[in-house]
Amino acid sequence: MNTIVRKQQPYGSWKSSLTAATVTSSSATLGAPVEYQGCILATESRPTEAGRVALLGRDAQNKLFDCLPTDFSIRTRVHEYGGRAWWAGTNRLYFCNWSDQRLYGMSGDVKNLIHPKPLTPAPINDHGLRFADGVETPDGNWVIAVAEIHGEDQSRYQLGGGADKEAANVVVAIPTDGSAVDNPSAINVLVTGADFVSNPSVSKNGEWISWVQWHHPNMPWDNTELMVGKLSADLSVSEVSCYAGGNNVSIVGPNWLHDGRLAYSSDENGWWNLHALNMDTKNIDVITELEGAEIGAAAWAIGTCRFCELNPVEDKLEKGHPKNAPWLVAMVTEQASDWLAVVYRDGTVQRNAVECAAVRGVCATGDGGAVALLEYRDSESSHCAFSTHDLSQGLPGKRMLNARANSQVKFAGSVAEPLRFASASEHAHAFFYAPTSSQLQGLADELPPLIVMGHGGPTAHATPSIKLAIQYWTSRGFAVADVNYRGSSGFGRRYRQGLNEAWGVVDVEDCIHVVKHLTATGRVDPKRCVIRGGSAGGLTVLRALQVSDVFAAGVSLYGVADLEGLLAETHKFESRYLDNLVGSYPEHAARYKERSPINYAHDINVPLLVLQGDEDKVVPPSQSEAIVKAVSDQKLAHAYVLFKGEQHGWRQASTLIRALELELWFYGAALNFKPNDDIKAPKEAKYF
Fold first, then answer.
1. 276/498 Cα distance (integer angstroms)
2. Which helix (H) or strand (E) holds 356?
3. Which one of 157, 257, 357, 467 is least enclosed by Cβ atoms within 10 Å?
4. Based on C-alpha coordinates, what's the Rg of the chain?
5. Are residues 327 and 457 in the same domain?
6. Neighbouring residues of 308: CB distance < 8 A, sequence distance ≥ 6
């Protein structure tokens, strides 16, 4: 038996086949699967096409094809974070186009679709009319969708208006014949009055319309309401009532079932579980009663829904198919990991035989099955579609939907290891990735450096699915801890609320304590631990560098530096987010000052790398520039790179490549080692 002898080489300087270019070229991701004309379609984000979001399908001959002309990109700016930007009707596809934010329709054969035609008017101001999260009415004459209307465009719909007025979020009905293009008043405003609306849905018989709504200062995972009204032929909405939610309960992803009930997720028992509202009796039935796992998610993306109903197939019943047949397919989250479940009519939840790490979407198919986009923990897997034909056995049939998947990259991958560790008075969670190489190992007397990652949100969570951006580090000899600090989703409502009025404290404690846990157990070098994070995770980075001495360097990607400044500059969706995370303002102004890294920049005494997009509307460049000026005034070693044309997060291949290489250069400079990559110091580096 041959024994592979791995060569010793200092951690961090390992030669890796995963270049930044390789990571970027393999990072096209699928999302939002939908069946149309018997073909499964999904969006595909393409960094190599400047972040364009295409529409991809695979035909019966197993060949990939694009459905969308190259001058269109499926992406909405509703809530700035976007979300459900396309959907299928009976004979037409609908999508929101990134460049103008107008709604378009396409009809025809799926492989020969007629060129997209606009269904909504050009806005008065750039991106003043935005659309998302729609559904075609049963008669096909209307699309009912969420509209976010800004500035002067509000005057078209008697919503007031003006450059300084907050955007209006409403539910509208858009004619599918294109008549609204030249006649904006042809768009009917159906629902107003709430600060936010999402998930509009119409019952199968067209009699009822439902939606989720919420008000400042709540976020959709805090306190939302399930609203239902009578939908008349003239598109008037009457008999509106709130049937679920409120009282600090979050409702997620309602959809009408074939039996006439409205199914939705509610976290009233502390975990998002499925319920069904009967409009005839007004009774609510509990479908699932999970504890420790949930069918729901923090709805950063508009249109979030974590289940689908299977299409009834009568011939199966005639052939003796069990009466209690599979009914729903659901995405279940447990300890920040996902699994695919089959839900039966009696409420039985069958855990699917396929083990995965994250589920990106699920949709029903016309044959009574379903397709899900799954992510896995190991390097052999990729984004795949599973058609669950024999659901009674829980055994899906595998079929690839994306040929440009991660499975094409062959290397010895590091698999996520769940960690639960003590932090302050409670326990927190993380996924740990050990440095891994098939040919190299560290020196005998050396421990690996550690990169601590803090996710954005902060009400979000890291998953254990394979991420080449993490393998980029582990294949070079770094250990990585992807921290799900208290306040993260994926662990139930109580854990999710652990950050309330404690942002900048609890998250920082957990990132510090994961270092202490890993150093105490002898797994990483205590003198070579760094921390990096984006957006809200950037605040965690800056605060951690100020209040502790466990980190040798930090990387802030479009990170929050000034909480008071963020209140004045950020977009509507998050404009009151800090009421829960920090406290109401100005009542707690002192707390805002205390938690803002900009006010304590003098306490940072280790190298800092700051990366920022110049078109970021969520965390504007002024936030990064403020902290950079402060550390520059102290003559602290740092680098600040502003990426042109980038918003909140990187989408362009050139940015993704340079950002990764900049980080690698930075860690080498900060930790005093030479990476095995030819990367020169950027001109933006100061005082190194």
1. 29
2. none
3. 257
4. 25
5. no
6. 255, 328, 329, 362, 363, 364, 370
